[in-house]
Amino acid sequence: MATMLKYEDKDLKVVGTRPIRPDGVDKVTGRARYGADVNLPGQIYGRVVRSPHAHARVLAIRTDKAEALKGVKAVVTRDDFPEMPVEYAAAGELIVNFRDVTRNMMAREKVLYDGHPVAAVAATSEAIARRAARLIEVDYEVLPHVIDPVEAMADDAPLLHEEQMTEGLDPAPEKPSNLAKVVSFAKGDVEQGFAEADLVIEREFNTKPVHQGYIEPQASIASYTEDGQVELYTATQGHFVIRAQCAKLLQMDISKIRVIPTELGGGFGGKNNVYLEPLAIVMSKKSNRPVKMTMSREDVFRSTGPTSGAHTRIKIGCRKDGRITAAEAELDFQAGAFAGSSVPMAAMCTFTRYDLDNVRVRGNDITVNRPKVAAYRAPGAPISIFGVESILDEMSRELGIDPIEIRLKNAARQGTQTYYGPTFGPIGYEETLNRARQHPHLQEKLGPDQGRGIATGFWFNIGKETTTTLNVNEDGSVTVILGTIDVAGGSRAAMAMMVAEELGIDVDKVRPQIGDTQTLGFNFVTAGSRGTFASGIAVTVAARKAIDVMRERAAQMWDVPVDGVVWEDGHARPASSNVGEFEPLSIVEIARKSGMTGGPIAGHAEITAEGAGPGFGTHIVDVEVDRRTGLVKILRYTVIQDTGKAIHPAYVEGQFQGGAVQGIGWALNEEYIYDADGRLQNPGFLDYRVPVASDVPFIGTDIVEVPNPNHPYGVRGIGEVPIIPPIAAISNAIHDAIGIRLREQPMSPPKVLKAIREASNGAG
Amino acid sequence: MMARYHVTTTVNGDEVDFLCESDQTLLSVLRDELVMTGTKEGCGTGDCGACSVTVDGRLMCSCLVLGVEVDGKEVETIEGMADGEALHPLQQKFLEHAALQCGICTPGLLVASRALLERNPDPTETEIRYWLAGNLCRCTGYHKIVEAVADAAREMREV
Ligand code: FES
Ligand code: FES
């Protein structure tokens, strides 16, 4: 049943305060157990053998030498996994196809990227496993490869999948290609809109693939028992989805697989999919030992989902007053080795901050010889809005309109119909722009070679299946079992706070805990900024059910009808003096007597959360460009975002700051670099450079709260939006500083320097 | 089986001994031989700081130190940071300032921050940022970490 709880505007005691997070002490003392920290008695160690080629046919795999090595307990190859038919399932924001999932975790007829698994071994020590991996011999027929999305669409491009016919084209194509799918959205009459425009700007933009860069590499440990049961510890954002995928890939009953999620050392969308899990399970079955597998950092870069690199073409027309008359986009997104990039979402986000009559967007999902992309925070949106926000900046200069003004003039608001369907309810986009306009940041004086840029972002946010169990313990303290992973943002803290608020008790009386897959019903992965929204509704439902039970118990103790009992401030009280004169009963008193009044007290929720509230943000950035080195320094940064309601403001600020800094890294430094053979050249943090503490200033935050009407506390998701504007905002700021517009990411020193040289050569 | 070396050392004040292979890192010794998993591995190549420990008071990446090198030395890890039930001021300030999210970087950052404050009890924002530049955090954007370190320094100067 779809569940919606309406927003209630009420006085709050716990929500909106800043208690210490319940998982905090374990994390500052080293006690928290992440994927690689789990050990099981008798465990052995697994290792993956990976393709050195970007594209090759796998002719033969010989494992006999490895198997003969003393200490080797299991070897697996493609022959150990059943073929999967084409069948789709949701996993996070992206859809997976089981035919491809099985090929991605273990290559079958071809290897499709440098790092693609071709075999795995398990041995009594890591050293033996390493040696055994080197003894596995694979015969390859190396094929030409393609990585660039535009090149991959050329007629003579190397073809990854001989049977892949483009979906979404009318008429249907006659021959296979790397164009896996086309998604299109349209509204109004774009030609007419451009004809009415006084100014039309069309530009092309390029972005490189970047990695989520979680500091914890993937790690799993699986134990398969003689009676066919599996215990699997893994670092994931979605243990129920991992369970479903393993069950499908290994043709097992879902009930036989227990997935215990470990503490998660960062995911950002990249830990929604199986990589090691099915390999560890099958090797555990073969060896009769628990199998532990961890990725090296190099494995993480070479084989787990980065986001798409892309080429986009954006065209916008507007009248002299800045009002947009038409907008058009074509987005070419790398899907990686298998179809299914974030281009559908990128297409839906491209122009959605604006209230437009005439829009056309086409997204191309293109298979190339790189790892299959995975979601990365607001998947695709930072890429697709880059060009839009850049062109708006150009327009505002051309027309002499302030960049905030031109956005306000076109801003989406309540009642705006999006070009992909839904009409917005109450949203906070204009509010973020109005706050930006008054922000002291804008008063800061800029020096030579310094500039300021503005850009904005939108993300849908999602609800989906969610379950929870709330137990009122015998002493009146409360345990809440959650089915959504705390992906780092502090959702356990937020859940405990909402429960405490509902029950009217102190937050430290509530202990939240993530349940494993055997303790709760199905939960969708924690993605799309759904954790606090959906689990927040679930815990509120559960708390209210527990309150109803406690009201019944009080009614029983007082011998009055249950309607005569209300719950206030952690106590059952008579609804009025007509009910009778009774001393209020606290949760502690009711809980203590629960054994005599009908047994343990609990509340459950098994819901599909609906009505997620769209999130909007406006970013302001000041940069300084060093003309001699091309280095762009971030001087000041401000994030203004509508959260609906900040349950724990410190963690909301933390999400804003963390997302913005990931965006800064994306804008300025991060990129995958391939050599001529399609091998990744920078699979490590030395050469794939994520921001460090000395690269960034303090990140200012301004929380806007326009409540989501479909959440009891008004919550919208917050985690995605902060990563969307930085690339565009920084590009706009660089232009403001030195008069050069960069339309390629990353805006790293060599690229900036090159642009400066070209500009001065052109001028001279 | 490769020959294993017998190493005697001090970890967080306790005398311990272990057997390790000649190429085994201190990080691997801590995590796999001594089962002290508070020290984390983010890269294994000295680029992320998640494995930070001190050896004879010097801050190091334990993934770049061999187990055999710490013979007779004093190793300090995150597990030794709290004093019994009392958290170290840095640990307390990280909690109060919400300076951690996923927490995988936190042990390394705390060990590195303590090493900073032992040398420089009154660091500027810039000094904090440059000292911690070897410790990657992908979640927080560093803002609250820098605030927490500065606040802990303030408190530690007062006592
Ligand atoms: S694990 Fe040692 S620096 Fe990353
Ligand atoms: S808190 Fe997640 S990496 Fe720092």
Structural class of chain A: alpha+beta
Number of helices of chain A: 20
Main beta sheet of chain A, described? 7 strands, mixed
What's the Cα radius of gyration of chain B?
Answer: 16 Å
**Beta-strand percentage of chain B?**
15-25%
Do you know the CATH topology of the largest domain in chain B? Answer: Ubiquitin-like (UB roll)
The CATH superfamily of the largest domain in chain B turns out to be: Beta-grasp domain
Q: By CATH's scheme, which homologous superfamily of one domain in chain A applies?
A: Aldehyde oxidase/xanthine dehydrogenase, molybdopterin binding domain
- CATH level-3 fold name of one domain in chain A: Aldehyde Oxidoreductase, domain 4
Structural class of chain B: alpha+beta
What is the name of the CATH class of the largest domain in chain B?
A: Alpha Beta
The helix content of chain A is 25-40%
Keywords:
heterodimer; A: 764 residues; alpha+beta; Aldehyde Oxidoreductase, domain 4; 7-stranded mixed sheet; 5-stranded mixed sheet; 20 helices; B: 159 residues; Ubiquitin-like (UB roll); DNA polymerase, domain 1; 2 domains; 5 helices; 33% helix; 16% strand; binds FE2/S2 (inorganic) cluster
